[in-house]
Amino acid sequence: MEQHRARPPRPQQQSQTPLLPSGRSADAAAVYRVAARPARPVPPVVLALRRLPNPRLTGLGSGLFAAAVMLVLGGLDRLLFGGSPIVYGLLFLPVSALTALWVRPADLVTAPIAVPIAFAVGLVPIAGGASGFGSRIMAVVTALAVHAGWLYGGTLVAGVIATVRKVRLMTRRRAIQAAAAQRGAARRPSPDPVE
Question: How many CB atoms are closer than 10 A to CB 110?
Fold first, then answer.
């Protein structure tokens, strides 16, 4: 049975922001400087992307999402376009991007791994082949070899998006750690000079 330890309450620390000559704090002046800058117009594409849902999928969840969507898109491609590999490849690229965008930060490495598996799963309806299991598998392997360009393209899209997200996350963490270190250094009392 687990026993939880209670942490002792921390004493409240008062903010030690220096006052400006006019009586305002430095934080208020910084906010005023930021608010005084003219706002840049936001492109309509960015506004549209902000309205999209922003789920955070686990590594397994992102793989299942990509595989399920590609299986459905492969079936629709077979019904509507007769199994066109170009249509399937074009549909694969945005699914790859969404998979890399929606995976949670802890599982970013799984996006470029899950996307090729989803590509192979979605090829099952459009690959063709005879009625036997072995014939279907050979048709999927052949389709993977013939349409490897789409596979590499979607994997590259997912890899680039995951890498950019990881770099931004690491930069944000470093900035937070640096700010915390500066706050900690500012709160430490300066040593008294030795006479």
Answer: 22
Contact 91, 80 (CB under 8 A): no
pLDDT band (50, 70, 90) for residue 31: very low
How far, CA to CA in Å, does 169 sit from each of 10, 14, 28, 172, 188? Answer: 29, 30, 28, 5, 29
Range 155-161 average pLDDT: 94
CA distance 150 to 168: 27
Q: Give the amino acid at 46.
A: V
Q: What is the pTM of this model?
A: 0.66
CB 114 within 8 A of CB 70: no
Query: Which of the two residues, 4 and 53, has the higher pLDDT score?
Result: 53
At residue 158's C-alpha, the angle toward residues 59 and 69, to 5°, is 65
CA distance 24 to 36: 16
Dig out the tokens for 107 from the structure. Answer: 């599982």
